[in-house]
Design goal:
This protein has 464 residues and is mostly helical. The chain has 22 helices and no strands. Helix 7 packs antiparallel against helix 16 and helix 17 packs antiparallel against helix 19. It is globular.
Length: 464
């Protein structure tokens, strides 16, 4: 069997054939993506549920603040469990099977919340929702990356982040006008779309090839590329690469630290660290209090924040395959530094009673620059790159590790934010600015550009 370098060289002339399918044949790719990103929307519904329902749930069930805080935070622990386990599950039963498992946990969670009359079923339901969230956060971008042609892969995978933002925003708006039990039932709708929609879309061809289901692999690839498309070259490329990977032993978690995989693991995990430790969850969860502390209207600021997040995420998704992953994330990280610095200046002025008339404007400008910058790149690009760089024989283990790091960072950032703000409001944002500055250095020197390349070409170049 040829080594990886020979395989990469031998298939180079075939790479330009992958995107040759006509636009009219891509409807199955779009349908499959729509079904998958309903999982991303469900993610947003789960994340956005606790904010508009706090007062109603607390009053109806006579919960203490501590009990409701446990209800809100246990979601993250469920997501960590989902992140750890869903990679091997997706490798064993397939990407579609993993999405069904994720949906089942969310359905069970929403029903437990709907029927809850005390704190325990409420927490159990929230934990189940968290598991589904963590699972969806891994399997959705991986499934989309494995079915999409290279010229659409970045754009379609980035829709994952757009739908998360949409789910959060819609839950917040609907939660203001319906009861919390009704909002839990509404959370079942995306799950119903996923479970029914998966009957009409094909499994990931790359997973089918990896598991030796060659006939199903060819049928799935043909459906995704169109009945009239010539998929022989793309099929040969995928099978050739998987045959090379099959020469390697079955990967375990400790194998991720071998030299051949070290670069892809460093890139995937490193991007998740950059995404979460730059302060996004602290800012997101406490944006209202940030505006209040800066003396600005929390309601106006929060509404503007939500609208900007959805719009800019959509723009980022639309231009990703043209602009490239690396330029977007560098622009994003630079904007995050600027947003943090502006916010830090506003708090510094307030603490020292200097130029108080400018404090509110600086704070809202800094936060909006921050969220706009995050949405254009840092929100979506790490998930896109994570779905591209891991070879399929370690994708389950490596993807679970990267997703676990992401959720741990989300919990740590949201947990420590209030403590940091108590220590120093402006110092908190200086710290986040420094971390985002280090993210720029990491991206410049470590992260490769993956735009316009097949998954096999990306993985062969990284994992030499």
């Amino acid at each position: 069997m040829a080594n990886k370098e020979d395989v990469e060289t031998s298939r180079e002339p075939l790479l330009n054939r992958e995107g040759s399918a006509h636009e009219g044949h891509r409807w199955m790719v779009y349908l499959s993506t729509f079904v998958a990103v309903c999982g991303s929307y469900e993610f947003g519904c789960c994340a956005g549920f606790s904010s508009p329902t706090q007062d109603a749930i607390t009053d109806d069930l006579s919960l203490s603040l501590a009990e409701y805080s446990m209800f809100g935070s246990i979601l993250t622990f469920g997501a960590m469990i989902g992140a750890i386990t869903i990679g091997p599950i997706a490798d064993f039963i397939g990407r579609k099977g993993a999405m069904r498992v994720s949906s089942a946990f969310c359905v069970a969670g929403w029903l437990a919340i709907y029927f809850a009359e005390s704190i325990w079923p409420l927490d159990i339901g929230r934990l189940a929702n968290g598991y589904g969230m963590g699972a969806f956060s891994y399997v959705v971008p991986v499934f989309i990356a494995e079915i999409a042609p290279k010229n659409l892969r970045g754009r379609l995978t980035a829709v994952n982040q757009l739908m998360i933002c949409a789910g959060v925003s819609v839950s917040y708006i609907i939660g203001v006008v319906v009861s919390w039990r009704a909002l839990a039932l509404i959370g079942l709708i995306p799950c119903a779309v996923i479970i029914s929609g998966l009957f009409f879309v094909p499994e990931s061809p790359r997973w089918l090839a990896k598991t030796g289901k060659h006939k199903e692999f060819e049928v799935a690839l043909q459906k995704l590329r169109g009945e009239d498309a010539d998929v022989s070259h793309e099929a040969a490329e995928i099978q050739d690469y998987i045959a090379t990977l099959d020469q390697l032993p079955k990967a375990k978690m400790l194998d991720l630290f071998q030299r051949r995989y070290s670069r892809s693991v460093i890139i995937g995990v490193g991007l998740m660290v950059c995404q979460q430790f730059g302060g996004i969850n602290g800012v997101c969860f406490y944006v209202s209090s940030i505006f209040e502390q800066a003396g600005f209207s929390s309601s106006i600021g929060t509404i503007t924040y939500a609208i900007l997040q959805v719009v800019v995420t959509g723009i980022g998704a639309a231009i990703m395959d043209k602009a490239g992953r690396k330029p977007l994330i560098l622009i994003s990280a630079s904007g995050l530094v600027l947003g943090c610095v502006l916010t830090a200046i506003s708090f510094f002025l307030k603490v020292n009673d200097w130029a108080l008339g400018a404090v509110g404007a600086l704070a809202v400008t800094g936060i909006l620059v921050y969220i706009g910058s995050f949405s254009i790149g840092m929100g979506a690009v790490p998930w896109v790159v994570m779905s591209e760089i891991f070879p399929i024989n370690i994708k389950g283990q490596a993807g679970s590790l990267a997703t676990l790091v992401n959720w741990f960072g989300a919990w740590l950032c949201s947990y420590t934010f209030n403590f940091l703000m108590s220590w120093s409001s402006y110092g908190t944002f200086i710290l986040y600015a420094a971390i985002n500055g280090l993210a720029i250095v990491f991206v410049v020197f470590v992260v490769p550009e993956t735009k316009g390349k097949t998954l096999e070409q990306i993985q062969a170049a990284i994992n030499k």
